[in-house]
TrEMBL record, chains A, B:
Enzyme Commission code: 2.1.1.193
Official protein name in the record: Ribosomal RNA small subunit methyltransferase E
Lineage: Bacteria, Pseudomonadati, Pseudomonadota, Gammaproteobacteria, Oceanospirillales
Keyword Methyltransferase annotated: yes
Keyword S-adenosyl-L-methionine set for record: yes
Annotated function: Specifically methylates the N3 position of the uracil ring of uridine 1498 (m3U1498) in 16S rRNA. Acts on the fully assembled 30S ribosomal subunit.
Organism: Billgrantia campisalis
Length: 237, 237
C-alpha cells in the first residue's frame, strides 16, 4: 500500500479522512507500523494525491489531517484491454498487474476456450473485482479506478461493440504465430486483445482480423496470460 | 504444460521415453486428456524438441516413442538477472515468469529490506526451485534449465562477484527515481538488478552505481517485484 486510497465516504470536509476497514487498519499497523504524527501518502479516488498526518489510530479507525491533495495521479496507458476471461486466480492477479501498470479500460471476453464455469466464479462479483483494482491502485500510487465490463458472448462483442471501439483506436490482437512482432514504445490509442490459455480458435482469430485488428506476437515462447499481458503492455507503451 | 520436459532418466535408448511422476501423469490425463496414439510435443532437458507418440498410459507411467528431437529450443535472453530475494510466494511466481521469458542466469541477492526469514523458506530448497523452473520451461516450450545462485550477503556480492559479472555485461539497476528510462529493444549482454519491495536503501544504490551499473526506471508507478521484473525484461529485450 504505497498510497492510501480514500473513497468519498472516507473524507470529511476535505481536511479530514477516516479509514475504517479492517484490511487497511491492519496494513497501517502491521506493515507501515504507523504511529501518531506519521505523514503518509494518500489519494482521493478519482482525484489528487498528497500527504496527510495520522492524528488518531485505534481499533476502529485511523484519522488523518490532509494537506492539499493537489498532485495529479500518474498518467494512464492509452489502452483498452480486452482479455479473454482467465481462470479465477489468474484473473485476480492479472487485474492487479494491469491496474498497477495504468490500464483504465478492461473488457473480460468470452471465447471458445474460456471454461463456462469461470463466468460463475465469485471473483467476478463487483466487490471482488473492485478489491483487486484497489490493490493495483494502492501499489502504483494511482487514484483513477479502471472500468471493467463483461462481454459474455464472443459474437455479440465482435459485431456490436468492437466496431465502435476500433473507430477511435488501433486494434492489436496478440496471438502466437501472427506475422508482426509486438510494436515498441507506441503512444496512440490502442485496443489490445489477449486470448485465453490455449489461445483463440482459428475462427475467432479470423473474425478479429476481419474486424480490422492487426495480429502481433511476442516471439516463439508461449506465455501464461498474466505474464503475457504484462509483457505486452510494457513493450507497447 | 506446452512441452513435456524429459530428464535424462526419463529416456531409454533415444527412442523411448517414460514419464512416471504423478504431477505430469495427472496433467496428461486431466488437462491433455491424452489417449494412446496422441502425438505430443516433448523436449530433452538441455537439448532438442520434437514430437512423440503416446504408446502406453497407465497409473504408473506414460510411454512415448520419440521422433527426431532435432528442433532447437527458443533463444535465451542475454541477461543475468539479480533479484533481491522476494517473499516466498512472490519468488515462486517470479521464477516461473522469468524462466518462461527465457532468463538463464538468476542470482537471488540479500539486501537490507529483504526479511531475513525469507532465507529460511522451504521455497529456497533446490528441488522447490527446480520445480518452478520446470513449470516455466514447460510453459514456454524451452528445454534449457536456468542456473540459480544465492548471494546471502550484499557486500560480498558487490565486492567479490559483481566486478566479474560486469566485465562482460552492461549493468542496469532498476530503481524508482533513477535518471534514465528503461532502454527498449537492446540485445547486448546485460546484468539486470532488481531490488526488494521497498527498494534498495540509498547506500546499496550508491554501491551498485559505483560498481558501474546504470540506474534505470520504469516511470512513476511503483510496481510489485513480479510485475516489474516481467515489464523490465519485456521492454529491454
Amino acid at each position: 500500500m504505497n498510497l492510501i486510497l480514500l473513497a468519498p465516504e472516507d473524507i470529511e470536509d476535505r481536511r479530514q479522512a477516516r479509514v475504517r476497514d479492517p484490511r487497511r487498519l491492519r496494513h497501517l499497523r502491521e506493515v507501515h507500523r504507523a504511529t501518531i504524527g506519521d505523514r503518509l501518502t494518500l489519494g482521493i479516488q478519482g482525484g489528487g494525491i498528497g500527504r496527510g498526518e495520522l492524528v488518531a489510530l485505534d481499533d476502529e479507525e485511523a484519522c488523518f489531517t490532509l494537506d492539499a491533495m493537489d498532485q495529479p495521479p500518474p498518467p494512464p496507458l492509452p489502452v483498452h484491454l480486452v482479455l479473454a476471461l482467465p481462470r479465477p486466480r489468474m484473473l485476480a492477479r492479472s487485474l492487479e498487474h494491469v491496474t498497477a501498470l495504468g490500464v483504465k479500460q478492461i473488457t473480460l471476453l468470452h471465447s471458445r476456450r474460456v471454461e463456462k464455469s469461470y463466468w460463475q466464479s465469485p471473483e467476478l462479483g463487483e466487490q471482488k473485482i473492485r478489491d483487486h483494482l484497489v490493490l493495483g491502485l494502492e501499489q502504483s500510487r494511482d487514484t483513477v479506478m479502471p472500468e471493467v465490463s463483461l462481454a459474455r458472448g464472443f459474437r455479440p462483442f465482435v459485431e456490436e461493440r468492437l466496431p465502435g471501439l476500433l473507430a477511435e483506436r488501433q486494434g492489436l490482437l496478440a496471438h502466437p504465430g501472427m506475422p508482426s512482432p509486438c510494436p515498441r514504445g507506441i503512444d496512440r490509442p490502442t485496443l489490445l486483445i489477449v486470448g485465453p490459455e490455449g489461445g483463440f480458435i482459428p475462427h475467432e482469430v479470423e473474425r478479429l482480423l476481419d474486424a480490422g485488428c492487426q495480429g502481433i506476437h511476442l516471439g516463439p515462447r508461449i506465455l501464461r496470460v498474466e505474464t503475457a499481458v504484462v509483457a505486452l503492455l510494457a513493450r507497447l507503451f
